[in-house]
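Think of the structure tokens as a kind of shorthand, similar to the way a musician reads notation: each symbol stands for something richer, in this case the local conformation of the backbone. In the example below we present two proteins back to back. Begin with the first one, reading the sequence and then the tokens, and try to describe in your own words what changes along the chain.
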Amino acid sequence: MIHILDTSLFYLCDFQVTNTPISLASMLQSFMKKSILFLVFSLYAKVYPSLYAQLGTPLFKSVKDFKYLSTLDSFAVDKDLIQKLDSLCKEAIKKGFELDKNPDKEEIKAYLKALRQLQTLHDKIEKSYKQQLYKSIYSNDKESFFILLKRPLNLVRADARLKQKVVEFYKTTGQTESSYLKALYEDYNLDERSYAHMNKMFKLYEEKKDVISRKSLDIFSPDYKAKKIEVLSVKVKDGFDIYLENHTFSVVSVKLHLKQMHNLSSDVSASYINSYPSRSRSKMMHLSIIEKSKKSDFSISYGTMLGSLVTSYNKKYVYALPYKREKLIF
């Protein structure tokens, strides 16, 4: 059996609590702000139905942006689709408010079905917008590019690849009039810095984990009661280290065989025999990952016996044994 030695990292977090006296005036000011925000939120919430709001509200809000697209010559083909979405959204909003007041199980099912149909129409229009935006970038059509982004859809910010292409093309235009594109550019740079930072932190974490796992191998406490012999596999940065733990009071010899090894190479032969000292942990071999992008796995079978197979002795030493000299004993 192969035992996997797992190590964990613990992060410590410092925080500070400050006790600050609060005046009555500041309390009243805070209360008024919260009351106004609550009132604004309440008024906003009534614009669209609360039933399935997570699905419905984004669809209803997108109609205004789609109506702008319907005025563009490039969206002449999608004009009827946008008008259909607008009409169905109005019906759905009306129905949603009715169900908010008087819910009915069957009608709620029908309402959800209607919202899903609206989602299908919405996605078709978004797809057309996305295609035209990519087309303007790849054909270096700056005029169409800025017209499409005069009233941008939310997917420009949400779609990472599209966002990257839009920002990269925007930089080549040399124009700075669009406040949206300037904000998108800053947002993209922030994303890039955040990704670079996270990637750097992940690499440091892997390196620390590797160091800590190796340090833990330096601390070996023999289990005198168990007197067991174990083979351990430790995951390291570039592969696996294989160790032998000998908890007995005797030197042990191990015959080990690597089998079903995928995407790995060993620094010793697949069939390996060696002897190890008592009450110790010893490194047996290292398995290196060949291609890091691919899956790596392996299995090991091994047998053990007490005593050393590679011992040396003095042939001139005289032993007092009850046998005749040069007689072979089986």
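Once you have a description of the first chain, move to the second and do the same.
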Amino acid sequence: MKRPHEFRSEDLPPARVFTDAPLEHMWARFGLAATGKGALKLIGRLAEECGCESPGESLGEKAMGVAFAVRTAREYFRPRAADNPTLSALSYYYGTVWLLAALMMADPTTDTGLAKVESYMDDGGHGLGNVDDPSPSVSFPDDMFVHLNPNGLFSAYLKSCGTAAQPLLPNRRINAVEDLENQPHWSLTELLARVPELLETWDEVMARPPAYVAVGTNSRPHGPGKLWWVYPQVDYLSRYLASSDDGLAMTGLERTRDEEILQITRGHPWVHVSEDPEAPFPSPLYTSAWAPTSYIKPIADGIDTPIHYHFCALYCLSILVRYQPHRWREIREGGKEFRLPLVTDYLAVAERIVPNLFLDRLFLRRHILAGHSYLG
């Protein structure tokens, strides 16, 4: 038996959809699971692909829960990021909450239904907590931090995926930024650095290396298999590939097809390549309609997928617009640092890419929604 979360994203069979309206077609695909009968069919197919028995008595409740969660998520994702960033920052987070709930309920290897999802939220809310650094010298988004709580929806999701949550939990109550010392936590900056779709916006606004590298393949000149390379696919990455900041130093500069490429070596601080010529590049690789194929540096053991990063980042932004209007006003008006493009571009990514990630995991298909020119 194989659990749905154990399927690697890069190994999912592709589902290509030729469209010039990817948002509309993406939510139309979600519509296949937005009714009780559709969700029943989905869970049955997932059970077959996972090699497990149908959930039995809990099947009906799970299907109704999946359908409800998908419909609710669609309503939350209706605002357009370009029209209303305040509403989008709040609404997209709650849409992501319900997409996460849909994943949990669609898993045919568990009995999780809507009542159990509700109990997770009643017991511990969303499963995350946050604190801010009030120091005048620290600017957004470096001043926002998120940590895992022992209970709540996100914690329950991680546990349902077999993640050892204990090492990710603080061992004391977190009330202020000082309490984070020697405790597991992540800044909003670290989360946004793991969003390849931000591309040049990250570089222009933050002026520091991202936490991912773009990769490509070339055939080995001698021997079988392929050789993986890190390369400056876009201009802003090339400035960081030769630096040592954040472990992005590369060696072995060569030329292939008149393009500068940098070979990953065994000395790379956080990209580990096997000596086996048949071994694949470190998994998982990530790609989307808006991003180059990339390897994203895991933020922690167990917090290591784009779904994790987006859930936590959107949680931070929802806190900002709900409870900190003075800070949100400063960001909207320029404030001490010009950070608004980073937020607005990220919300555009959340609108287009985040539901696509969940669509892939819900149906165990890699949905490529793009025009004919993109798909070749």
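Compare your description with these statements about the second chain. The first strand starts at residue 14 and ends at 18.
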